[in-house]
Design brief:
It is a single chain. The chain has 6 helices and 5 strands; from the N terminus they run ββααβααββαα. The chain is elongated and about 60 Å long. With about 170 residues, the chain is mainly alpha-helical. It has a domain at about 55-165: Arc Repressor Mutant, subunit A. The strands form 2 sheets. It has a 3-stranded antiparallel beta sheet. α3 (about 75-80) packs across α4.
Length: about 170
């Protein structure tokens, strides 16, 4: 993917100095979804490059951290919260269980439901990898000042919360 230098001038983008042969993505410059997608893809690429040896993907990490913060969470509720379809959630939990990171227990309230909790190995994995993930995220967000990071994360959180009202994985 070709990169280009973007200089912001008067709320518009100046493309002078674009690399020869670069793909002009100017038509997408005012679409928030485009930038969110591009940032997500770049962050995932960087995550996979950094944590390739761990066998942990961003999705597995989110599930592990969420289960650790919510012991006994129902698999369906976790899938809904993480916007993961039920069939994919089952596959994700199967993978975590095979690796000995998560255990499934029948729910006391509803025998048809499964509750999830981290095993000792799962808790140890989260404890080990989270400091590295936090450092990795700090590196990715290094172009932003501390103040800009707070604003950026605050705005993302606000959008996520507002957009999440009444929605689910579909």
């Amino acid at each position: 993917m070709a990169t280009r230098k973007i200089v912001i001038k008067d709320n518009d983008f100046d493309r002078t100095g674009a690399e020869p042969g670069a793909v002009d993505l100017a038509a997408l410059d005012h679409l928030a979804g485009f930038f969110v997608r591009m940032i997500q893809l770049r962050m995932f690429q960087m995550f996979h490059a950094r944590f390739a040896g761990s066998g942990i993907s961003p999705g597995l990490l989110c599930a592990l951290v969420a289960i650790g913060a919510n012991p006994g969470v129902r698999a369906g509720a976790l899938g809904d919260a993480l916007l993961i379809r039920r069939s994919n959630m089952t596959k994700l939990v199967d993978a975590l269980e095979r690796r000995g990171l998560v255990r499934r227990l029948p729910s006391d309230q509803d025998r048809r439901s499964v509750e999830l909790s981290l095993t000792q190995a799962g808790a140890a994995t989260v404890a080990k990898i989270m400091p590295e993930v936090i450092a990795h995220e700090a590196t990715m967000l290094a172009p932003l000042s501390v103040h800009e990071r707070r604003i950026f994360l605050g705005l993302l959180g606000k959008l996520n919360e507002r957009m999440g009202k009444g929605s689910g994985p579909g």
